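Long-time lurker. I teach an intro course on protein structure, and each term I like to show students one example going from raw sequence to a predicted 3D structure in token notation. This year I'd like something fresh instead of my usual example. Would anyone be willing to generate the tokens for the chain below so I can use it in lecture? Attribution to the forum is fine with me.
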Amino acid sequence: MLPRPRTLRARLTLANVAFVALGLLATAGFSVMATYMVLGSEIDHTLRDSQRSLSSAPVTADGLARLCTLAGILQAGKDGRDDGDGGLSFAKAFKQDLFVVLDEDGRNSSVCENDGGADNRLRADLTAGLHEPAALARSGKAVNVRAAGTDYRVVVTRLGDGSMVVQGMRYSGLEHAIHKLLVWESLAGLGLLGLLAVGSLSAARRRLSPLETMVETASAIAEGDLSRRIATSRHGSTEVRQLSTALNAMLQQIETAVTESERATAQLRHFLADASHELRTPLASVQGYLQLYEKGMLDAADKDRALSRVSAEAQRMSRLVDELLALARLEERPELDFQPVDLCALVRDAAADLAAQQPGRPQTLLLPAGARGAYALGDEAGLRQVVGNLLSNVRAHTPADAPLVIEVEGDATGVRLRIADSGPGLEPADAARAFDRFFRADAERAPDTGGAGLGMAIVQAVVQAHHGTVRLDTAPGEGLTVHITLPPAPAPGGAPPPADPDGVAAPRAAGATAGANVLALE
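-- Reply from a regular --
Happy to contribute to a lecture. Here you go:
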């Protein structure tokens, strides 16, 4: 049993060759049968014409004898010799290979004894093969008879005196023609199958080349090269191109998912490390002071200072835990109770708090003119935390006398908050990580500021939860500007201020001439 081909190319080629081979066999069989029937019908037609001619003439056995003698004389006169083969000449006159005369009982007759060159064996075999010549004469049918090792197609004709004539033609010509037809069809079929196999294998290799590219791409991806994609092949069919496109889209999603997973895993490791570090420092301080207190190594003044430090570190850990919980809640995408929130009111409150903490810091508030305000759709507590965190960063990371500008404007497209300080600014690398958890541009000042590096991360999470955007503009020595955009909300009792044709917000305070809308807090 032949082994089954393993490759798809070989299987397709084998299937094509097998189907065509079956078709060729069926065609060859049909052509052989048709050729056999056509040639056989031609032989039968010739024999029947001869039979009709002989039966319609008033010929008897004696007449045939004289005709055979005459045919022999004519033949002798033609070639100059007399071999007595009148029967053969008479048979040739009828365009036949066999001419035998039988008596009324179907036995051999001496009439035209040399008919067709037939010898005694042929005559005996012919008489034995024709079981009922009288019945064949009546029916007029042609039958096959084998005599002297040769197949003949014969008909029997009854003459007027009751004798019968057997006329026949060899089937060897027909068999030779069929044999040659089979040989030529076999050769042509084998050549066609060979060409088909070569062409099918070449076409399959060309059409299936995109699949090999897919295998190479999949192997490269399995080895870690997630950026590999399946190249579009001009030899591929529409289905293969569609498959390539779908696989490329899937690979892009897989790469994005893997990249995001790796990034999330790295962030989680950093978060755990940073959180552990942030908690370890205050816990170590609390543990140290408690050990000193338990061992009685502190006097009254030191005890008060130790308790004060323990309380401060506990508050620091409490703030850290609260901020972590706030971030965890925001990551769960909670359903916030969005209401119209006057961002101007939040800014005024936060600016007043900062003025109380740092009276010497110059503050400039640029707010919409009049009492209309700028209403954003959001959660008031969350937005208040955003403004508070941003101003806390200004207070902690910029000099106490550095000017601060807070601007609020709103129209139908959104409410925008801009907080610009005049501090030292950030390096581009630090600005890119400003919203990372536990990131601090100046880690050495962390114990002094008391921050854990979660303020900007909370700002970003809250703004995104409000379907808004936040971005930074900063450079070393040029301060830091935070831009926040929030969805607008209709003011209580009215609609949000429309944008003017030039895309500028509704009139707001500008310069020192705007009265109460420009506040300089010093």
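Some talking points for your students: The CA atoms of residues 4 and 11 lie 8 Å apart. The first strand starts at residue 98 and ends at 102.
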